[in-house]
Protein 1
Amino acid sequence: MMDRKKAQQMCLCKMCPSFVECSEEIAFCLESVGKSGCIKEENGCLCPGCPVLEEEGYQHVFYCTRGSETSQH
Ligand code: SF4
Ligand code: SF4
């Protein structure tokens, strides 16, 4: 699995229209991060264009509101 720091550097969440800044960790798709505590509204998701999603073979979206890749299975 990809290193968390590396994933957070590649993560597109901060550019996403759904993103809410509250100083929490990003790369919500990762099991070690998971759902956001502050993003509550789904206003589009950039995950389908993210290199982390592609490299890891992830198949979901809206990780911030719906939970990590493994929790969405
Ligand atoms: S797939 Fe989504 S949550 Fe995961 S690193 Fe990329 S933009 Fe962030
Ligand atoms: S998980 Fe998707 S919807 Fe949530 S902030 Fe990241 S790119 Fe946007």
Note: The chain has one domain: 4-72.
Protein 2
Amino acid sequence: MFIDRVDIFVKAGDGGNGVVAFRREKFVPRGGPSGGDGGKGGDIIIKADRHLRTLLDFQYRHHFRAQKGENGKGNKQTGKDGTDLILKVPPGTLIEEEEEILIDLVKNEDSFLIVKGGKGGRGNARFATSVNQAPKYSEKGEKGEEKRLTLELKLIAEAGLIGEPNSGKSTLLSKVSAARPKVADYPFTTLEPTLGVVKLEEGESFVLADIPGLIEGAHKGAGLGDEFLRHIERTKVLVHLIDLAEPNPAQRYFQLRNELKLYNPLLLEKPEILVANKMDLLEAKENLKNFKKEIKKEVIPISALTGKGVKELIWKVWKEIS
Ligand SMILES: Nc1nc2c(ncn2[C@@H]2O[C@H](COP(=O)(O)OP(=O)(O)OP(=O)(O)O)[C@@H](O)[C@H]2O)c(=O)[nH]1
Ligand SMILES: [Mg+2]
């Protein structure tokens, strides 16, 4: 399953306590204060790791605590610092706290200190003064910070497939990549975005996202809503699939563009490759000429089913993103 939003709780380590101790030596009846400081609590750091593709790991575990600092010891020994905890997330993960974005971990290895461990408390050795040479108190360690966070993954696909339900997006993705999204003859087959890696000759490749079908009113939550539209906000190019076998393709095309605009007008500024799909069907062949006339844009005719025109399309997408 594709997990793109999870709530987690993180708590950094508490600082170790400072202690009260006195030197004990043979022949020295009352030694001076020797209680050491507590160690610092571990921090929690969130780091982007390109080997991860989903937030699945966070679905099973929501609570993360870093190690406490060790308490101080006698002989003025400081306790050990708690170990930092590093949480790995896929690149493209946004970290939010109460709806506010704290950081956007875009690139591999990007990292962010999310909660800081508490300072260790001071031991009584630190409190000796000329008037109080044998203090009997020490500090407690500071509490580690804690936060409730939302992690949200924006897929980093270079190209995004958009189109109405049933237009053939998943069919196309499975034709050009090893991804196997469900394909079926009814709308809203795809419920979650799927990524596929499209390999070209000469070892080049790019990531293509298949997202659920869009309908009028999607930006207000109609159909499966607009939640997944954020997955295409970062793509470099949109591949817009139209089912040419259905009536009024041009009208449907403009309606979908309008839907994108209502969600985020910047989407319309992205390069777009317009694809007429299902060209193996007679109705599609009949509709193509009119469609081209009304649209006044370059149209790439393909059949995702038979594969005709698909190779040319992929090269076109590649040219746009490279
Ligand atoms: N004849 C023909 N049928 C196609 C072609 N491409 C897809 N189909 C069929 O159209 C139906 C829908 O295909 P999907 O790939 O599931 O469509 P989708 O756009 O992913 O649909 P949603 O996930 O519901 O948005 C399936 O029955 C496919 O077999 C094509 O080029 N020619
Ligand atoms: Mg689909």
Note: The pocket of magnesium ion (ligand 2) is lined by residues 169-170, 181, 189-190, 210 (CB under 6 Å).
